[in-house]
Amino acid sequence: MSRGTENQTLFKMAMKGKWREVVDLCQENLDLISQKITKTGATALHVAITENQFDAVRELVKLIIKDDKKEALRAKTEKGDTPIHLAASMGSTPTCRWMVEADPTLIGDRNIDGETPLFLAASHGKKRAFLYLHSRGSIDERYSYSKRADGDTTLHSAIEREFMDLAFLIILEYEKLVDSVNEKGYTALHLLAKKPAAFPSGNKLGWFSKIIYECLSVELYVDDEIDNKDDLPLPLSNAPPDKSYDSSDTSVDSTVTQEEETADVEKQATTSNNKDVQSKTSQESKKLAEKRFMFRDFIGFCATETLGLIEPGKEEKIKLERRESNESAILIAAKNGIEEIVKSILTEYPVAINDRDASKKNIVILASENRHLNLFKFLINQNFLREGIVRQMDDKGNTVLHATASYDDEKHNLWPIPGAAAQMQWEIQWFEHVKSSMPENVTFPPNHEGKSAEEIFSSKHAKLVKEGAGWLVKTSESCSVVAALIAGVAFATSSSIPGGLDEATGKPKLQKQVAFEVFSISSLVALCFSVTALTMFLAILTSRFQERDFSRDLPFKLLAGLTSLFVSIASILVSFSSGHSLMTEDKFRYAVFPVYAVACLPVSIFAVAQFPLYLDLLLTNFKSRFDDRRLNLINHLTYQISRVWKFISAYLNQRRTNKFENEN
């Protein structure tokens, strides 16, 4: 059989999953182990590792070691990946172990991108494989293997792909990587500052999600015992005898075998050859083993630990080595609204408040420009809004107030409230909040274009005002039609009397019935509130729709109109049901209740459809997110109700006490 024919046969057997035949072919002709059988330059060993064929990999590696064909372990694909590269990226710890024991220098092999197996294990979040490969090199070799050609380290890669548990372990084991800078001038902390979703401040969680979030915990993998053994038993020597198997059998058997081998490797994963580092790591491990880190504190701990490992003298070095970016980590965090990083950095280095990016924007400008309310409140509470800070301008002469006045439809639609009118209301409140938070006697001059902050606010929000006006007009028109209909029905209903009048007295014949009293009151309420709703909606339709109208006037009119409309809808339904019950005999009174429910369903659907809008308006008008000094209406009412309840409870308890004393 020719070489080409053998390669094709080997390729077909591998693609069909007949790995027993693949091993037999390689055993007959050992040169086939090193032959590339795919277009990407992969050998049979590459394919077996990719397909998780654990037994086939074991047999192929066994043949390589037995016949000293170690060049097959260095066979590279088009991307320069050797079999151990694929094994590390797949997280196959036993496979990595076999290959390293066959040739320890394989750990240092790099692909076209300059990535080592250790780096790929970190990039794919394979913690067990990473820990094993970490244990098989000296200190200098570990640091060398942890860097890629473009300067990215394993810490960069773990944070970039959000493997935070692995990043934490890398911080503990590789302190020098913390301040390592890549070609773009970024440290690992810079990348962490670009991950707002990895922090509580970057996630808008509901109350139920917050409860679950607070209860989540993270167990950190910390091995208290540092194993100093360099000689690990070679599992191939004790491998079970060859057997006939197909791909389905292999997957089952390999799962069990791999779990057993991985458990054995995991016990020895933190082996170190440097005694000083072992001692220090052992002390750290004992401290960490006593703690259970809550998930909400875990990433914050990583950021704090990172800051603690960066020496003050190295900050300037990091800035000088920066090539593509002039942004420090705190500026990136401020831009993304990550309060945890900003707080940690300002706590350790308060002078970082003076950092400015390439556009000369400081932290205050970035926080206000990107609508990060909680971060801005932190700066206020920590007295960082000093006169020297708020007077700073960017390269276009824009101050913090100019930045607050700017608006981008795609960028700044961040307020948790739907609707253009509500967005405009919150924009006005945000601008006023930032303006009122500035130190006294601080004036803001026009920018380089000669525009003041108010002028920028008007020009940037012109489109939002137009959209809000259009939305209010459409809403008012649809609701005013319903209000007018209810007003007409309520007027006709209130002027008609069920059962007629008594000719002798001129009074309603059914006035002694409870249902008649309900009918009379509900009809009057429906008429009054429907007219009120109609008046409010007409007031909105005739409004001038100027900017200041969106602050309080228009939202309040819409809220009052919807409130009146809902009350009138409920009242007219009660009026209809109570009036009709008077005309029904007693034996049918309870039988017609389902009919009432079906008759009221169409109008009720409209009310239910508009109810979310009503809740949003309540949130917008009565819950102040911007001014902590004002107690919002809901909290105030709750506080007053609690005080009244406490007074009533105290009064009743006193009466019961007096009664008990009198009886005794």
Give the helices and strands, then pairings:
Blueprint: H1 3-15, H2 19-28, H3 44-50, H4 54-66, H5 83-90, H6 93-102, H7 117-123, H8 127-135, H9 139-145, H10 154-160, H11 164-173, H12 188-192, H13 207-215, E1 217-218, H14 247-267, H15 275-289, E2 293-294, H16 295-309, H17 312-321, H18 329-336, H19 339-348, H20 363-369, H21 373-381, H22 387-390, H23 400-405, H24 420-437, H25 453-460, H26 462-495, H27 514-541, H28 553-582, H29 593-622, H30 633-663
Antiparallel strand pairs: 1-2
Main sheet record: 2 strands, antiparallel
User: How many β strands by DSSP?
Assistant: 2
* Strand composition percent: under 5%
CATH topology term of the largest domain:
Serine Threonine Protein Phosphatase 5, Tetratricopeptide repeat
Describe this structure in words.
The chain is an all-alpha fold and 664 residues long. 60% of the residues lie in helices and 1% in strands. The protein has helices spanning 3-15, 19-28, 44-50, 54-66, 83-90, 93-102, 117-123, 127-135, 139-145, 154-160, 164-173, 188-192, 207-215, 247-267, 275-289, 295-309, 312-321, 329-336, 339-348, 363-369, 373-381, 387-390, 400-405, 420-437, 453-460, 462-495, 514-541, 553-582, 593-622, 633-663; strands spanning 217-218, 293-294. Strands 1-2 form a two-stranded antiparallel ribbon. Residues 222-295, 311-324 and 629-635 have low confidence and may be disordered.
Concise overview:
The protein has 30 helices and two strands. The protein is mainly α and 664 residues long.
